[in-house]
Amino acid sequence: MLLRSHFAIINGNVCETIKLKKSGGGIQKTMKAKAGTSRSIVYLTAAAVTVILMLLYWANSDSASRSQQKIQRESYRLGTIVRITLYGDDSERLNKAIDLSMKEIERLENLLSVNIPSSDVSRLNSASGDHPVKISEETAFLLEKALEWSERTEGAFDPTIGKIVKLWGIGTERAALPDPEELREAVRLTDFRKISIVHKEDGIFVQTGKGQRIDLGGIAKGYVTDKIKELLIKEGVSSALIDLGGNIAVFGDSPKMGKWKLGIQHPFRPRGEYFGIAEVSDVSVVTSGPYERYFESDGVRYHHIFDPATGYPARSDLASVTVIGADSTDADALSTALFVMGFGKSVSFLKDLKNIDAVLVTEKPEGTIAYVTHKLSGSFILKESDMKKEMISQ
Ligand code: ADP
Ligand code: MG
Question: pTM here?
Answer without folding.
Answer: 0.86
